[in-house]
Amino acid sequence: MESLSDTKWDVVISGTGLQQSLLALALSRSGKNILHIDPNQYYGEAEAALSLQEVKEWAAEHQSSSANSAFSNVQVTKDGQGPASPRAYSLALAPNLFTQRQN
User: Fold this and answer.
1) In 51-70, which positions are buried (b, 16+ CB within 10 angstroms) versus exposed (e)?
2) What is the similarity comment for this entry (predicted)?
3) 100 within domain boundaries
4) Is residue 76 in a domain?
């Protein structure tokens, strides 16, 4: 396998959010050689789902306001002990709307 530095890339995409991932998919299907990277330690950017510990770390990095960020003044509080396993559930960074049909 070639090293990353020895490969000729047609496109370099920074970020693994939904938009960047769909762009990478479309370009790779058209035969382009894509390098898809992310500056974060997790995939998904603003659409990521993180464990409680990962959310605490993420919040610490987003404490102050930034004009370039979708998030600002982030705080995480937890009442009580919480789940025994840190992976018992994930917290989504993006708000979601779940629809339901009743009969």
Assistant:
1) bbebbeebbeebeeeeeeee
2) Belongs to the Rab GDI family.
3) no
4) yes
Contact call for residues 52 and 91 (beta carbons, < 8 A): yes
Tokens in use for 99?
A: 């629809």
| Dist. CA 55–CA 5, nearest whole Å | 33
* Number of other CB atoms surrounding residue 39 within 10 Å: 8
- List pLDDT tens digits, range 6-63: 889 999 999 999 999 999 999 999 999 999 999 888 889 888 999 888 888 888 887 7
The parent domain of residue 14 ranges over 10-48
**Sign of the dihedral through C-alpha 7, 43, 62, 19:** positive
